[in-house]
Amino acid sequence: MKTRTLGPYTVSAIGLGAMPLSFGGSVTPTLDEAVATVHAALDAGITYVDTADIYAPSWDSMGHNEEIVARALATWSGDRDAVVVGTKGGITRSQGEVWGRNGSLDYLRSAVEKSLRVLGVEAIDLYQWHRPDRHRTYAEGVEALATLRDEGKIKAIGVSNASVEELEVAAEVLGEGGLASVQNQFSPKYRNAPDAELAWCGERGIAFLPWAPLGGAGIGVQALAKDFPAIAEVSADRGVSPQQVVLAWHLAKGEHVIPIPGASRPGSILDSVKAVDLELTDDEFERIDHRPGW
C-alpha cells in the first residue's frame, strides 16, 4: 500500500469513509456486513478510517458509526495500532431530527468524551471540527480543539467544510504544524471553491481529505462519468472501474490528497483500493481535469 502523510501519521494513500455503514446510503448494511466491510478495507492495507458522531440512523443513536468502527477494530486480526481513526464533532442532532451546530468548548468537550468512550480509546487520533458554528468566531472553535488537545483527549486536529479564510484562522490559532488535515467536499464536478482550499493545503503540506470523492450518496460515479466522458473513456481503455479512475485523478492532484471513498460492502472498497496502483498519463489526467462548460 502506498502511503501519504496526515499530520503526525503515515497512512494509506486512500482511506475508508465509514458513513455509508450507518447513514446516507441507499441500503444500510447489517452490523455483520458493516464489520466485514471495515475488515476488508484493513486487510487490503487501508490504515485510515474516517467516521463522525452524527453518522447514525437516527438522532437518538448518535455514535452508531463510531461503534461499528470500534467493533471492527476490536475483532480484526491485524495490528490495531497501525490504524489511524479520525472522527468529527460540532454538529448537533436532537429529537425530531433537528440539526444544528455548536462549536463551544463545553459542547466539543462533551462530544469528544463521548467519542472516546464509544471508540474505546484514551485519546482520539484525529479529531475534526465538522462544520463551522456561525454563532461564534471561527477562532473560538479552533481554540476549543486546541484546549482538548492540550488536555490529552485528542492527538491531532483537523477541520472540515472550511473556507480558505477559515483555514487561515485555524493555522494562526494552532501555529506551525498544528493543523493536520482539511476535509472538504471535492470531486471532478464539485471544484469551484474547493480548488482554492486544495491548493492552500498543498502549499503548506497539510493533508486534504476529499469527502464524496466519487460524487456523493445518491449521485455516484456513474453520474460523474456521464458529465465527464473522459472518465468512462479511460475506464474502458484501461479495463478498470470508473471509480478507480476518479480516485486515481484525486491522487494525482497532489501528494497531500488522501481521498476517503465511502463503502457499504467489501467489494466496493476493494475496488477503490486498486486506484493506488493506477497512474494516469498526463493526457488522461488533463482530459478528466477539464470541466465541461468552463
What is the global morphology?
globular
Amount of beta strand: 15-25%
- For the termini, the CA-CA separation is 35 Å
Question: What spatial order of strands do you see in the largest sheet?
Answer: 3-4-5-8-9-10-11
GO molecular function, one term: oxidoreductase activity
Keywords: Oxidoreductase
Pfam family, one: Aldo_ket_red
Domain NADP-dependent oxidoreductase: 14-289
Write a compact overview of the structure shown.
The chain has 294 residues and is α/β, with parallel strands linked by helices. It is built from eleven helices and eleven strands.
Descriptive overview:
With 294 residues, the chain is of the alpha/beta class. The protein contains eleven helices and eleven strands. The strands form three sheets. A seven-stranded parallel sheet has the order 3-4-5-8-9-10-11, covered by helices on one side. The protein is globular. The model has no long low-confidence stretch (mean pLDDT 94). The longest helix has 15 residues.
Write the layout of secondary structure elements.
Elements: E1 3-6, E2 9-12, E3 16-17, H1 31-43, E4 48-50, H2 64-75, E5 84-89, E6 91-94, E7 98-101, H3 105-119, E8 124-129, H4 138-150, E9 154-160, H5 164-174, E10 179-183, H6 192-204, E11 207-208, H7 220-227, H8 229-238, H9 242-252, H10 266-273, H11 282-289
Parallel strand pairs: 3-4, 4-5, 5-8, 8-9, 9-10, 10-11
Antiparallel strand pairs: 1-2, 6-7
Helix pairs in contact: 1-2, 1-10, 3-4, 4-5, 7-8, 8-9
Kindly list the characteristics that best describe this protein:
globular; seven-stranded parallel beta sheet; 41% helix; 294 residues; 11 helices; alpha/beta; two-stranded antiparallel ribbon
